[in-house]
UniProtKB/TrEMBL annotation:
It comes from Cohnella phaseoli. Pfam families: Pro_CA (PF00484). Gene3D superfamilies: Carbonic anhydrase (3.40.1050.10). The keyword Acyltransferase does not apply. Zn(2+) binds at residues 38, 40, 96, 99. This is carbonic anhydrase.
Length: 191
């Protein structure tokens, strides 16, 4: 049986037994917060528990390293929608110790692309179109750098109201211990 078959079989039982009822909520974040965090598997359940958040409390936006790479990319769009459409009043950027984006080797990743069948023609076409792999796949030296970068991009974004606090945190992926790096209240302006 395949992984997807297992999922579908479980899902049928989940729905038939009405296990979904404990997760019912609406689309608006109860705690009025949007959280940009890393896609690391260790944070899936740990992060919400460590923050005392339940299903429906926050809008979670996840990507590699919790790093925004473009001011008008999809992760930033999600943050803007959370603020302007979903009622988020604060934004938290939460990176973590031991992040895989720390000192990411873009050259080694391009080599893996090739090993997985991506041709030089495709890579050359991307490069000739202005996609620089060393920039596109750039990580950071320390997870704090990634958090500071993302907080700065959100804070300076022309579509983020100046009164919205944008905080920066690091979480320990084993203990859930949270470190407050950037106090967004100090930078937010009165409405």
């Amino acid at each position: 049986m395949s992984f997807v078959s297992d999922i579908l079989e479980f899902n049928d039982q989940f729905v038939d037994q009405r296990q979904y009822e404990q997760y019912l909520t609406d689309k608006f974040p109860e705690k009025k917060v949007a959280i940009l965090t890393c896609m690391d598997t260790r944070l899936v359940e740990l992060l919400p528990k460590a923050l005392n958040l339940r299903n429906g409390d926050a809008k979670f936006i996840k990507n590699a390293g919790a790093v925004l790479t473009q001011p008008f990319g999809s992760a930033m769009r999600s943050i803007l929608i959370a603020i302007h459409e979903m009622g988020a009043k604060e934004v938290l950027v939460i990176g973590h110790h031991g992040c895989g984006m720390t000192q990411l080797d873009s050259g080694a990743l391009v080599k893996k692309f090739k090993e997985n069948g991506i041709s030089d023609v495709v890579l050359d076409t991307l490069e000739n179109s202005g996609i620089r792999m060393e920039k596109f796949l750039k990580g950071f030296d320390k997870p704090e750098d990634g958090v500071r970068h993302s907080v700065g991009m959100i804070r300076r974004h022309p579509l983020v109201p100046s009164f919205v606090p944008v905080h920066g945190f690091l979480i320990h992926p084993e203990t859930g211990k949270l470190e407050w790096l950037i106090n967004g209240y100090e930078q937010a302006q009165e409405k």
